[in-house]
Design goal:
434 residues; mainly alpha; Growth Hormone, Chain: A; 16 helices; 77% helix; 0% strand
């Protein structure tokens, strides 16, 4: 049994999770609306560009994980990748939230290039950061403690990301407010990276063995050799797409269906604050059931709560606050349980003598996350454009039909399919993968 990690050093490691999450949420939620309203970039065009940027990023992520593993095998600590990526991410964030005053196709080109830069720099930081966390201790209980503290900081960052863009816009007006947010997020990321690199615990796990046999993609895809791992990644992709679609169009829904864009920050904070409050529920439930059945309960609860959004209309503020709170209660299941199941898969493969460096697993995990985001953008925004919806345009009259269907019905259907897949792959006794 390894010694418990110092709380102070664990706090230093977790500190970086907050600014990363603070930036990530507005990139996925605020950026499409910001570029549509203030820079005239059509939603259909955005959907294609987002799909391309996220697909490219998804292909790069496993290669970054492989590079980090090979450097780690040569004695290069993962913190150096974090320190390399943080200033690049800070610069890209400033560029994305403060675009130049250009028109025509140039704003689309800037949008695409800045998205690619943000995504790749974010992956460079996150893959090594999460792999570093997996290597801080050899004890399963301590690894759970590391993940729980990191995700708690991430939720605090999500709350800041939900609120601060509106705070800056109210103080300085938009788009100057968005530019100020980009600068604030950039500074927080650099500070968090330096704190993590300087004061985080020393990894307990030895450097991974160099994986020299086979080409890069053969090495990257080795974790998918096991059937249960393939099923877990497929399920995570389906469920992640269901979660990402509402995040992509939520601000349009609040503006044009509920009719209270001024309360967008309050709605988002209600959702994420409910997730923070309910987070202890899911570890408690896993001790009484198991991880997979607890995750299934979270999926079904999310569908039941979110389907209510289909029935709402202008002025239904109290009802939408209730939707945000009830669906937010299930958020912890999607945050805490899939990484725990991934850790179980890594342990099983290691015990069977087929273990691979943590970077390979987290590279694939990040790839799956980005593919889900790419699918969400590539499906939701073109669907709205095809239905005739335009942000703040005369075609917003289509919102009562198109927006609720894309915002609520489509993700509920996908999450129900994910829940069915999870149920079909449960073993009767242990609740594990077949």
């Amino acid at each position: 049994m390894s010694r418990p990690l110092s709380r102070r050093r664990l706090l230093a490691y977790s500190a970086l999770a907050a600014p990363l999450a603070m930036l990530t949420l507005p990139v996925y939620i605020h950026v499409p609306k910001f570029y549509a309203e203030h820079h005239g970039l059509a939603l259909g065009t955005q959907g294609v560009l987002l799909l391309g940027a996220r697909a490219l990023d998804a292909l790069v992520d496993p290669l970054l994980g492989l590079a980090a593993d090979r450097a780690r095998a040569r004695g290069v600590e993962r913190r150096w990748f974090v320190l390399l990526g943080a200033p690049l991410l800070a610069l890209a964030a400033c560029g994305l939230f403060a675009p130049p005053a250009v028109g025509g196709g140039w704003i689309g080109a800037w949008f695409f290039l800045m998205l690619v830069a943000v995504y790749i720099a974010l992956a460079l930081v996150q893959i090594s950061y999460h792999a570093q966390g997996a290597e801080l201790s050899l004890d399963p209980a301590e690894r759970t403690r590391v993940t729980a503290m990191r995700e708690s900081f991430a939720l605090l960052g999500v709350l800041a990301g939900a609120l601060l863009p509106q705070v800056f816009d109210a103080a300085r007006g938009s788009p100057a407010g968005h530019a100020s947010f980009g600068v604030a997020a950039a500074g927080a990321i650099v500070l968090g990276a330096v704190t993590c690199a300087a004061f985080a615990p020393t990894p307990a796990a030895p450097p991974p063995r160099a994986q020299s046999d086979g080409g890069p993609w053969e090495t990257i895809l080795r974790p998918l050799r096991a059937v249960d791992s393939r099923r877990l990644f497929a399920l995570y992709l389906l469920n992640g797409t269901a979660n990402a679609i509402p995040a992509t169009v939520v601000l349009f829904y609040i503006d044009d269906v509920i009719g209270r864009g001024d309360l967008a920050g309050a709605f988002l904070c209600t959702y994420f604050l409910a997730g923070v409050v309910a987070m202890p529920l899911w570890p408690w439930l896993t001790r009484r059931l198991d991880k997979t059945r607890a995750w299934l309960a979270g999926m079904l609860g999310a569908v039941a709560a979110f389907a209510w959004a289909l029935t709402l209309g202008p002025g239904d503020v109290a009802a939408y606050f209730a939707v945000c709170a009830l669906s937010g209660l299930a958020l912890g299941a999607d945050l805490a349980l899939p990484p725990a199941l991934l850790a179980d898969a890594i342990d099983r493969e290691t015990a069977a003598g087929h273990g691979y460096p943590a970077g390979a697993w987290f590279g694939l995990w990040t790839l799956t996350t980005k593919l889900a985001l790419a699918l969400a953008a590539g499906i939701a925004l073109p669907l709205l454009a095809w239905a005739g919806y335009e942000a703040n345009g005369p075609a917003a009259g289509h919102a009562p039909t198109a927006l609720p269907l894309v915002y609520a019905l489509l993700p509920c259907a996908l999450k129900a399919a994910a829940a069915t897949m999870l149920w079909c792959n449960l073993t009767p006794r242990a609740g594990s993968w077949r």
